[in-house]
Specification:
Blueprint (H helix, E strand, L loop, with lengths): L1 H8 L1 H26 L9 E6 L4 H4 L2 H7 L7 E6 L9 H14 L5 H4 E3 L15 H18 L7 E5 L3 H4 L1 H16 L7 E5 L4 H4 L4 H14 L16 E5 L2 H14 L6 H9 L5 E6 L5
Parallel strand pairs: 1-2, 1-4, 2-3, 4-5
Antiparallel strand pairs: 5-7, 6-7
Length: 291
């Protein structure tokens, strides 16, 4: 141990010690970006993002939305929110905040692109699940409205939470069940693609951009290197996608909360918008299980 300490005290040893973190950061960045380049983004799709509460779009899906609305990808992005988040009696305020947040994230024409439901059976609750058949019915009504506003163009892609709902919130979890119910029971809807946001363990939720490296490393270990043409279904849509925001995208996501959802910026949300991996990185998986 004394020998190691003496080496670190030398100019050469100190230089190596200081360079190691920089080299490690550079390696992680290079590895992450090179792996992300093998994942094609969702493009040329008419997309409906299904969220449970106003602020879900900013706290969990910001990197996805920021990417999807890029003109180069030629997507149409709409949001269906299944409650007004009225647990504290400020639902009308939160409706307005959702529109402001969506606009900050780049969703165009939010008055026609965002639908917010306020059904007495779908109230913001940490203890109650929502009826999947009711969710499916509201999806059907929303898609008809979107189709009228988009000149007959119908939604062909859903994006929502996975079976763990990121935070195990029962309202989040209910959306996946409702989307699958819709795809099973409504005619001619089985060709709609369903992507779900991956839930990670709690110890990975709060390491911000570092989890992009962890996720890409685990993906490489699990699936190996992708060959050209792999990772796509027959229609050409990707089986999984990853979205990593740059600094501007990360700051925009934060503004969607601090300027859009002002009523929700209690003390612990500052920790979330600073440290959460979901503010800067999303990975989505194509869900083909209709059960």
């Amino acid at each position: 141990m004394p020998a190691i300490v003496n080496r670190l005290r030398s100019p050469r040893g100190l230089a190596i010690f200081l360079l190691l973190p920089i080299l490690m950061a550079a390696f992680c960045s290079y590895y992450t970006l090179s792996h992300l380049s093998t994942h094609s983004p969702i493009h040329n799709r008419n997309i409906a993002l299904l969220i449970a509460h106003p602020d879900d779009e900013a706290m969990f899906f910001s990197p996805t939305i920021r990417s999807l609305v890029s003109p180069s990808l030629q997507n149409t992005v709409q949001i269906i929110c299944f409650s007004i988040g009225n647990a504290e009696g400020i639902g009308q305020i939160r409706e307005t905040e959702l529109l402001a947040s969506a606009s900050l994230l780049g969703v165009p024409n939010v008055n026609n692109s965002v639908i917010i439901h306020d059904d007495p059976n779908l109230q913001d609750s940490m203890t109650q699940s929502w009826p999947e058949d009711l969710i499916a019915s509201l999806i059907s009504n929303s898609l008809k409205e979107f189709r009228e506003d988009n000149g007959g163009k119908r939604v062909d892609t859903f994006i929502t939470f996975d079976e763990s709902g990121v935070s195990a919130h029962p309202n989040h979890v209910s959306l996946l069940k409702g989307a699958k119910y819709y795809l099973r029971h409504y005619p001619k809807k089985n060709d709609i693609l369903l992507y779900t946001l991956n839930t990670v363990p709690v110890y990975r939720k709060y390491i911000s951009i570092l989890d992009a490296f962890v996720t890409t490393l685990l993906d490489r270990i699990k699936n190996g290197a992708r060959e050209e043409g792999e990772g796509y279904i027959d229609t050409g849509a990707p089986k999984s996608v990853m979205y990593l925001s740059n600094w501007q995208g990360y700051r925009t996501a934060q503004k969607a909360m601090t300027e859009g959802h002002k009523s929700q910026m209690v003390w612990f949300r500052w920790g979330w918008i600073t440290l959460s991996r979901y503010m800067v990185f999303n990975d989505l998986v194509l869900d083909t299980d209709r059960s």
